Every structure is written in C-alpha cells, then in structure tokens.
Amino acid sequence: MPTALSFQSLRKTYGSTVAVEDLCLEVEEGEIFGLIGPNGAGKTTAVECALGLRQPDAGGVRVLGMDPRRTSREAFYRRVGAQLQDAGLPDRLTVQEAVDLFASFYPTTMDRTPLLDRWGLSEKRGASIDALSGGQKQRLFVVLALVHNPDLVVLDEISTGLDPEARRVTRDLLREVQESGTTVILVTHFMDEAQALCDRVAMMNRGRCVALDTPAALIDRLDASYRVHFAAASSVNPAPLRVDPAVETVTVDDKHIRVYGSDNLLSTVVRHLTEQNITPNDLHAERATLEDVFLALTNDGPARSSPAATEIPADSA
After folding, report:
1. What is the pLDDT of residue 306?
2. CB-CB contact of 76 with 68 (8 Å)
3. Rounded to whole angstroms, what are the CA distances from 101 to 11, 95, 97, 138, 208?
4. How far is CA 172 from CA 81, 94, 127, 166, 283, in A?
5. Residue 31: which domain range?
6. What pLDDT, on the 0 to 100 scale, is given for residue 264?
7. Is 204 helix (H, G, I), strand (E, B) or coil?
8. Which uninterrupted H or E stretch holds 226?
9. Is 155 exposed, middle or buried (0-12, 13-18, 19+ CB in 10 A)?
10. DSSP letter at 306?
C-alpha cells in the first residue's frame, strides 16, 4: 500500500527535555492508525511536526509524499486536515459561521449540511461556540477538519469531553470517514478506543515508539494474554496454579485471586479448583487489552511481555 505518513528518525526537544526520540514508522493510505500512550509520551509533538506546526531537530517527515517544511501551506492543507488538542475559536462565533469560515479556505468542500447532520450539530447551527458543551465543541472541530474532504486527517484526543454513548457514535463516524478513503491518524491515551478502532497502533512512551503492530498482534505477544479472576474461600491453595505451565502470574488480594496466562487458562483454573473441591464466586475470564500491553512494556503491570513484544521494530509492520 502507498505510504500516507512517514516519520524518519524524528527527534524533537524542548530545552533539555526530549519530547520525541528517533521515531521511525510508516502509515499506509486508508488506515485508521493510532498514536497511543500516556500524556507526555510525545504523541502530539510528533503529529505537530507532521503538520508543519513544529520544526524537528533531526530526522524528517513525509505526509502524502509531501515535506511539510518545503511544500506550500496552500498545497499541503488542501490535502490534510487536523483537529488539535488545544484548538480554539472566538466564543461569539456561531457553528454555521465557523464552518463557513473554514470552508472559505479551500477551493472545494464537502456539502456542509449533511456533514453537520452526521456529526450531530445541525440543530446547533446558530449556537455560539461558548454555548456548546465540551463534546459538541470536539465534534465541531472534527467537522472543521473534514470540511474540505482531506486525504489524511489528524485527530488529537477526539474523545475528550465525550460521554460513553457519544464515544461509540464517534467511532462509527470515523469508520465512515475511513471508508470514504481518508487516512485517519488517531492520537489518544484511551487504549480501549485505539483497540476498537485502529488497524495498527504505535505505542509511545517517553518519546519513543515501544511497539508497533495491530492491536490483536500486540496483545497476542503477551505471555499472559488471558486472565481469570475469582473470589474464593481462604482455603484455596494458589501454589499448584503458580507452577502450571499455562500460568504466568498469580496474585492474591485478600480472598480475590487473579490468574494470568495463555489461551487455555480458564480450563486450567477450573481444573485446579475442581481438584481442591472449591467452588469459586464471581468467576470471570477476560482477554488482555492494549492497556495491559502498555503496562507490561513499561514494567508497570503484573503481566510480563515476551522479548518480541518489547522490541518491535518501527518499520516491521
């Protein structure tokens, strides 16, 4: 697939603080690609360099074949859209005025009426910016990023201020954006959002890309990609579980036991409980998540990652 976005050994510092260090990755056209990680991981700095808003200290960026530092702003932003984390508009500007203003920047635009309707803002056309809720403002900024039907759009923390239902609707809308042919760069610290939406993700920590793959592949690389937790009487003996080959980790908190292991973990736990003649309460089996992957990679969680998961080349996808 053609490359929509490429970071080539990108480095950006602010004084003695290294925001991005040796970032190398490529995004294919048509992907929903996630830059994920905690606040301060370097995600926003990386996309601001990609958008030409910041000058890298070293390395390069190519967006749809263009160098944002050497391409005219008019040619660049005809093909690229962005909803940034700290975007702002005059409070007294109305929704319709904002959309009309942004549409005037481009030679061609999408039909604004269905665009506003699709993002739930048609009834807010005459409302001023300061009268919108936080979620409505977020959706407006997305509309402004999409009004010219860009080939690539960057959405930075799109779910901030959205309630769970609005987040679900937004996910469906972003899939529609992808189906229209637009490459979506999703910058988020919501791991569940990235897991549900993204074709691939680059997981960042302290300015570096620590993992790059599909969400499912990253989860599969965990030694403990499944977990079972239950409440049981104090008579349960976790020792046999700890030595079972299918089990990676066992934690005991009062009478609550969590077991981490491979894909046959549930049957393993049930067998051990049956052998001890113990009936557990509130038995749950769960698949690991991208959050578990991140905690494992940064040594902040109980599950340990395999060597393959901790050293995933950024250009190996």
Report:
1. 36
2. yes
3. 35, 10, 6, 17, 37
4. 19, 26, 25, 10, 32
5. 3-219
6. 86
7. strand
8. strand 226-231
9. buried
10. P
Query: pTM for the full model?
Result: 0.84
The closest of 192, 175, 54, 295 to 23, measured between CA atoms, is: 54
Over the chain (317 residues), what is each successive 10-residue block's mean pLDDT? 94 96 97 93 95 96 96 95 85 95 95 94 95 89 96 91 83 94 94 94 95 94 85 83 91 88 89 90 89 82 38 33
SS3 60: strand
Contacts of 226 by beta carbon, 8 Å cutoff, 6+ apart: 260, 261, 262, 263, 265, 266, 285, 286, 287, 288
Judge whether 218 and 203 are in contact, CB under 8 Å: yes
Residue 294 lies in a domain: no
3-class state of residue 22 by DSSP: strand
- So what's the pLDDT on residue 308? 33
Domain check: are 17 and 107 in the same one?
A: yes
Helices and strands of the chain, counted as H and E runs = 12, 13
User: What is the C-alpha separation between 190 and 160, in angstroms, rounded?
Assistant: 9
Q: What is the 3-state secondary structure (H, E, C) of 166-196?
A: HHHHHHHHHHHHHHCCCEEEEEECCHHHHHH
CATH number of the domain bearing residue 232: 3.30.70
* pLDDT at residue 225, as a whole number: 81
Grouping H, G, I as helix, E, B as strand and the rest as coil, residue 1 is: coil
Do 187 and 233 lie in one domain? The reply is no
Q: Are 277 and 137 members of one domain?
A: no
The whole-angstrom separation of Cα 309 and Cα 210 is 9
At residue 300, the pLDDT reads 57
Q: What is the distance between the alpha carbons of residues 18 and 12, in angstroms, rounded to a whole number?
A: 6
How many Cβ atoms from other residues are within 10 Å of residue 174's Cβ?
21
Q: How many domains does the chain have?
A: 2
Work out the angle at residue 138's Cα, subtended by the Cα atoms of residues 132 and 142, and round it to the nearest 5 degrees: 125
Edge-to-edge, what's the strand order for the sheet holding 152-156?
80-83, 152-156, 183-188, 32-36, 200-205, 208-213
